[in-house]
Write a structure and sequence with these properties.
The complex is a heterodimer of chains A (about 250) and B (about 260). Chain A is α/β, with parallel strands linked by helices and about 250 residues long. In chain A, about 40% of the residues lie in helices and about 25% in strands. Chain A has a six-stranded mixed beta sheet with strand order 6-7-8-3-9-10, sandwiched between helices. In chain A, strands 2-1-4-5 form a four-stranded antiparallel beta sheet, covered by helices on one side. In chain A, strand 7, helix 7 and strand 8 form a beta-alpha-beta unit. In chain A, helix 5 crosses helix 6 and helix 11 packs antiparallel against helix 12. Chain B is mainly alpha-helical. In chain B, helix 1 runs parallel beside helix 9, helix 3 packs antiparallel against helix 5 and helix 6 runs antiparallel to helix 7. Classes of the chains: A alpha/beta (about 250), B mainly alpha (about 260).
Chain lengths: ~250, ~260
């Protein structure tokens, strides 16, 4: 088996204000794998993403693309880890879409020509060509989400980590996002409650509860196991549930 | 929710829209400097400046109501100063009235001074508005960066512009949520208290958002310096435009010296 691109061993973190968000989480992800991270609210999923990038000082071993995360290596780690945050308004902080997408490549110190190549490539990947000079404020939620993804794609990270990528998207925007994610070749971590999306995009699903891994396996098995999901406050994805509840509902899915 | 943007007409395609933003910024500063340097109570040297701004206004096809409305919005700040001049400036009284125990003299000199100040204010504000009406804000920022305005200042402006509307949306949503429950009719004391609550929540949300934005920046390699790909586009016509504006500013000051010595 290839060297894992992401390795977590006994990762722990307690928020200064009290709750222990991560309690000995161990996880290993192979290059090119697409992993869905699911679990109830407050299970530690979002904290895990922050810990991967070194934004919360977690204990334990975190290795991203061969770099062990320490205070000194956080910048190298972030270069290989593309974090897409839940609220696209936080991600898009520059006055124009093009400046925002160029932000990552420019801070990486790439030459202007290379930056332009990356920007066009990223805009093409998310189907937002022609949006270069638009102001993020004037984009729709779906467009913002795709632009936020482009800002990270332009850095060509080895791992893409998305927090609730389909939140607040309408069905068409969500469908486009699924197609887009399914077409990417990088390693993918998808955090969220949209189990149907995870079932379509990720071949592996990890259930996180109370700050540690509660279940880990192929998405079809995990997301098809009603007892397991319900034990962690989740429900069967609609596309799976349809098979259980009579033909009338199945036809609707 | 979409607010009226500061630069809503800036996406036009006229010749003045296409001028380089850095050049336009310098030109605006030159005109404002010329306006400010005209001696006090001297109206005539301001006329060529006003004429040039009117020409620019027409060239940019900026709608007159847009300009007037915005001038009206920022006028109160200047008005507060302007109204005091006629009564504070000593001189020949044109109108005297009693105000309780005081006698107030409105002087001719004071009126002239107030008029002159108002004219200077209006010209300067007009010039700035025209810059924003014909240049997109992000281009103005790029221009400022190229003019070596300190990065921190440009970045502050960029963030203000980016997040001001989002904050206003948040305030609006909170106010709507409040109005949905009290019908906007509660006793003023309660409304005042809940208003303070809205303010407090807004502060916390803003603080949280600032942290998340910082994470998003750091996740993409932010190290405290903001680099932006900058391409200079100053061409012959831009230099000509700047030269014209500087000449205009100098001409106003020169005219002032020639006429009034």
């Amino acid at each position: 088996m290839a060297e894992p691109v992401l390795e977590l061993v006994d990762v722990r973190y307690r928020y200064p204000t009290g709750p222990e968000a991560l309690r000995g989480l161990t996880l290993s992800v192979a290059p090119g794998e697409r992993v869905g991270l699911v679990g109830p609210n407050g299970a530690g999923k979002s904290t895990l993403l922050l810990a991967l990038a070194g934004f919360v000082p977690a204990e334990g071993l975190i290795r991203v693309a061969g770099h062990t995360l320490t205070r000194g290596t956080a910048r190298d780690v972030r270069r290989h880890l593309g974090l897409v945050f839940q609220d696209a308004d936080d991600q898009l902080f520059m006055p124009r879409v093009v400046d925002d997408i160029a932000f990552g490549p420019v801070t990486m110190g790439l030459a202007l020509e290379e930056v332009q190549v990356r920007v066009h490539e990223a805009l093409h990947a998310v189907d937002l060509e022609g949006y270069e000079t638009r102001a993020p404020y004037h984009l729709s939620v779906g467009e913002k989400r795709r632009a936020a993804l482009a800002t990270v794609l332009a850095m060509r990270p080895q791992i893409l980590a998305l927090d609730e990528p389909s939140a607040n998207l309408d069905p068409r925007g969500r469908r486009r996002l699924i197609q887009l994610l399914a077409g990417l070749s990088s390693t993918l971590l998808v955090v969220g409650h949209d189990l149907d999306l995870i079932l379509e995009v990720c071949q592996r699903t990890v259930v996180i509860d109370a700050g540690r891994v509660a279940a880990d396996g192929p998405s079809r098995e995990i997301l098809g196991n009603r007892e397991l999901l319900e034990a962690y406050g989740l429900e069967l994805p609609l596309s799976v549930a349809g098979r259980y509840v009579g033909r009338g509902n199945a036809a609707a899915s | 929710m979409h607010h009226i943007m500061l630069d809503q007409f800036a996406a036009g395609k006229t010749a003045v829209h296409r001028l380089d933003p850095a050049g336009k910024t310098v030109a605006t500063l030159a005109v404002i400097l010329g306006t400010v340097l005209v001696g006090r109570d001297h109206f005539l040297p301001l006329v060529p400046l006003a004429a040039a701004l009117a020409a620019y206004h027409a060239a940019g096809r900026t709608p007159l109501p847009y300009t007037l409305k915005r001038l009206l919005v920022i006028s109160p700040f200047a008005l507060a100063v302007v109204v005091l001049f006629p009564i504070l400036e000593p001189g020949r009284p044109v109108w005297t009235f009693g105000l309780g125990p005081w006698t107030v003299n409105v002087t001719e000199e004071g009126l002239v001074r107030a008029g002159h100040l108002a004219a200077k204010f209006l010209l300067s504000a007009w010039a700035t508005l025209l810059l924003l009406a014909t240049t997109r804000f992000q281009d103005v920022l790029q221009g400022l960066a190229r003019l070596r305005v300190p990065r921190a200042f440009v970045v502050q402006l960029a963030f203000l512009y980016r997040y001001l509307w989002i904050l206003m949306d948040e305030v609006m949503r909170m106010r709507q949520a409040r109005a949905a429950r009290d019908g906007g009719l509660g006793p003023w004391r309660v409304r005042f208290q809940s208003g303070a609550g809205v303010l407090g929540v807004l502060f916390l949300r803003t603080y949280d958002r600032a942290e998340r934005i910082y994470w998003a920046m750091a996740a993409r390699g932010f190290d405290g310096r903001l680099h932006a790909p900058i391409q200079s586009r100053m061409q012959g016509k831009d230099w000509l435009f700047v030269a014209g504006a500087v000449a205009l500013g100098c001409a106003a000051v020169g005219l002032d010296r020639a006429l009034y010595g």
